[in-house]
Amino acid sequence: MADANLAYLSLILLLPIALLIFLYLIVRPRPVKIPIKNRHVFITGGSSGIGLALAHQAAKEGARVSILARSPEKLGDAKNAIRLASGIDVAVFAADVRDYEAVRRAVDEAGPIDVLIVNQGVFVPAELENLELDEVRFMMDVNLMGSFNMIKAALPAIKNRKDGGPASIALMSSQAGQVGIYGYTAYSASKFGLRGLAEALQHEVIEDNIHVSLIFPPDTETPGLLEENKKRPQLTSIIAASSSAMKADEVAKKAFIGIKSGSFIIPCNFVGFLAGMATAGLSPQRSFFMAFVEVVAAGIGRVAALCFQWNWYRSIEKWHAQQRT
Ligand SMILES: NC(=O)c1ccc[n+]([C@@H]2O[C@H](COP(=O)([O-])OP(=O)(O)OC[C@H]3O[C@@H](n4cnc5c(N)ncnc54)[C@H](OP(=O)(O)O)[C@@H]3O)[C@@H](O)[C@H]2O)c1
C-alpha cells in the first residue's frame, strides 16, 4: 500500500516536470531580449493617448524616437511635451497611414528602424445597424489597412537596421481584438484582423531576427476614449467595464516590458492576462513557463470565459427588458 502511494506521488510530481521539460524543448520562437536604449523606436499615432505615452516611455529608456500622425499641430505639441519631460528631441512625421506613399516617404526620411510600434487607431462605437458603411470602411482602412501600409513600408528599414540586433514590430490591438464586444462589430473585426497579420508575419520575419508582438489594452484614459465615450452605446460601456480601465502611461510601461521580452501576446491588466490565456490557441509562445500555465489552465480558462459570456448575455437581456418597460 505504502509502495503504491509512493508510486502515485512520484507520478504526480514527475508529470509536471516532464511537461515542463517537453515545453522547454518545443516552445518557438526561442526567448529573446530586445534592447531599447540607443535604438530607433518609430511609433505611429504617437501624438496622442497611448502612442504619446509610448513615445515618452521610449525617450525615458534612452531610445531615438520618431512619431507619425496626421495633424502637424498635435505632433508639434507632442514633441514639445517630450522635450520638456525628458530633454529628448523626437522626430515627427505628418502622414496618414491610409496613404502608402506618404508613409513610405516618412520611413525613408526616418532611416533604419529597430522597433516599430503600429499604434494608430480609430473607433466609432455603434451597433452595426446604426453604423454607416463609410464608418466601417474608415475603421478598417485606418486600423487594419493602415497597419499593412506601415509595416510594408517599414520592413526594408527594419531589415537594414544598423546594429543587426533583435528587432520588434508591435501592433496595438485591444481587448476588443480578443473578444467581440457589443457596439464594436467593425472595430473588433479590424483588431481581430491584426492578429492574423501578426501570426503570419512572425513566420515570415523570424529569420531576420524580427519579433512580433500584439498589445491588448482595456479601456484606457486617452483623448480618443474621451471622444468615443460621447457616443458609446450603454451596453458597450457595461460590457467593457468587466475589465478595469487604465491610464495611458501604465499601458505604455506594460507594452515596453512585453516588447523587450519579445512576447507575442502582451496583456495589460489581469483580465487581459486571463483573456490572453483563454485565447492562446495556436499563437506562438516563447516562455516555456507561460506555455505550462496555458496548458494547465486551459480547462478552467474556458470555464472562466463562459462565465464572462454568461454575465455579458445577462446584461444584454436585462438592458433590453429595461428598455421595454
Ligand atoms: N483608449 C482606449 O480605450 C484603447 C483601448 C484599447 C486599444 N486602444 C488602441 O490604442 C491605440 C491608440 O488609441 P488612443 O486611445 O491613444 O487614441 P487617440 O488618443 O485618439 O490617439 C490616436 C493617435 O492615432 C493618430 N491617428 C489617427 N488616425 C490616423 C491616421 N489615419 N494616420 C496616422 N495617424 C493617425 C492620431 O493623430 P491624428 O489624429 O493627428 O492623425 C493620434 O496620434 C488605437 O489603436 C486604439 O485602437 C485604445
UniProtKB/TrEMBL annotation:
<keyword id="KW-0560">Oxidoreductase</keyword>
<keyword id="KW-0521">NADP</keyword>
<dbReference type="InterPro" id="IPR045022">
    <property type="entry name" value="KDSR-like"/>
</dbReference>
<comment type="similarity">
    <text>Belongs to the short-chain dehydrogenases/reductases (SDR) family.</text>
</comment>
<protein>
    <recommendedName>
        <fullName>3-dehydrosphinganine reductase</fullName>
        <ecNumber>1.1.1.102</ecNumber>
    </recommendedName>
</protein>
<feature type="domain" description="Ketoreductase">
    <location>
        <begin position="39"/>
        <end position="209"/>
    </location>
</feature>
<dbReference type="GO" id="GO:0006666">
    <property type="term" value="P:3-keto-sphinganine metabolic process"/>
</dbReference>
<feature type="transmembrane region" description="Helical">
    <location>
        <begin position="263"/>
        <end position="282"/>
    </location>
</feature>
<keyword id="KW-0256">Endoplasmic reticulum</keyword>
<dbReference type="InterPro" id="IPR002347">
    <property type="entry name" value="SDR_fam"/>
</dbReference>
<dbReference type="GO" id="GO:0000166">
    <property type="term" value="F:nucleotide binding"/>
</dbReference>
<feature type="transmembrane region" description="Helical">
    <location>
        <begin position="288"/>
        <end position="308"/>
    </location>
</feature>
<dbReference type="InterPro" id="IPR057326">
    <property type="entry name" value="KR_dom"/>
</dbReference>
<dbReference type="GO" id="GO:0030148">
    <property type="term" value="P:sphingolipid biosynthetic process"/>
</dbReference>
<keyword id="KW-0443">Lipid metabolism</keyword>
<comment type="pathway">
    <text>Sphingolipid metabolism.</text>
</comment>
<keyword id="KW-0547">Nucleotide-binding</keyword>
<keyword id="KW-0472">Membrane</keyword>
<dbReference type="InterPro" id="IPR036291">
    <property type="entry name" value="NAD(P)-bd_dom_sf"/>
</dbReference>
<comment type="pathway">
    <text>Lipid metabolism; sphingolipid metabolism.</text>
</comment>
<keyword id="KW-0746">Sphingolipid metabolism</keyword>
<feature type="transmembrane region" description="Helical">
    <location>
        <begin position="6"/>
        <end position="27"/>
    </location>
</feature>
<keyword id="KW-1133">Transmembrane helix</keyword>
<dbReference type="Pfam" id="PF00106">
    <property type="entry name" value="adh_short"/>
</dbReference>
<keyword id="KW-0812">Transmembrane</keyword>
<dbReference type="GO" id="GO:0005789">
    <property type="term" value="C:endoplasmic reticulum membrane"/>
</dbReference>
<dbReference type="InterPro" id="IPR020904">
    <property type="entry name" value="Sc_DH/Rdtase_CS"/>
</dbReference>
<dbReference type="GO" id="GO:0047560">
    <property type="term" value="F:3-dehydrosphinganine reductase activity"/>
</dbReference>
